[in-house]
Write a structure and sequence with these properties.
It is built from 5 helices and 5 strands. By secondary structure, the protein is an alpha+beta fold. It has 2 domains: 113 residues, 2-Layer Sandwich (SHC Adaptor Protein); 37 residues, Elongin C, Chain C, domain 1, CATH 1.10.750.20.
């Protein structure tokens, strides 16, 4: 017995249409994923109290001018290629560090040689949290000649955060196991909604 398979003819135009449709679907999913990641980053940032929104570089400098080294805030970037900027006080005075967003990850903008070595994070707050913890753990050694050491130690609040939020941050600094605490589930959910130390 001979099995006859039906033949299908596909023109190169229909193959290209299918490929184009797949690429459009992938692009659509990537854009949706980026929108979700940025929306989540904004939600976390708005919870911090140290996100200042559309502040200019000069306004940030004015706010930080008389602050101690390590004081910082996060604001919207004034450069179109970047979403956010960290404004921080260094030993040389206030400075700005752009935060780059690529392929669903946030990292500090830097010179080309250093970029591949910088850590990437799912959120801006996690990025800041990482550098705050590094600043607290790093010994106060002098920076190499001609460079300025970046410390992020104290946030400059746009407004006093609610006491609930400050308690949540204090609890997160103390334990990484919020679900094991003898607390009502609703309170555990609140604590788990913001798991950062800053």
């Amino acid at each position: 017995m001979t099995v006859v398979r039906p033949m299908t003819c596909q023109s190169s135009e229909s193959t290209e249409a299918v490929e184009s449709s797949r690429r459009a679907d992938d692009t659509s999913r990537a854009v949706e994923s980026d929108e979700n990641r940025i929306a989540s980053a904004m939600k976390d940032l708005k919870n911090t109290g140290w996100y200042w929104g559309g502040l200019t570089a000069n306004e940030a400098k004015g706010i930080l001018q008389d602050s101690s080294e390590g004081t910082f805030l996060v604001r919207d970037s004034s450069q179109r290629d970047f979403l956010f900027t960290i404004s921080a006080v260094t030993s040389a005075g206030p400075t700005n560090l752009r935060i780059e967003y690529q392929r669903g990850k946030f990292k500090l903008d830097s010179v080309v040689l250093v970029k591949p070595k910088l850590k990437q994070f799912d959120s801006v707050v996690r990025l800041v949290d990482h550098y705050v913890q590094l600043s607290g753990a790093a010994p106060s050694a002098a920076a190499p000649n001609g460079t300025v050491k970046l410390l992020l130690t104290r946030p400059a609040y746009a407004a006093a955060p609610p006491l609930q939020h400050l308690c949540r941050v204090a609890i997160n600094r103390t334990t990484g196991r919020v679900r094991d605490l003898p607390l009502p589930d609703r309170l555990k959910d609140y604590l788990a909604d913001y798991t950062y130390h800053v």
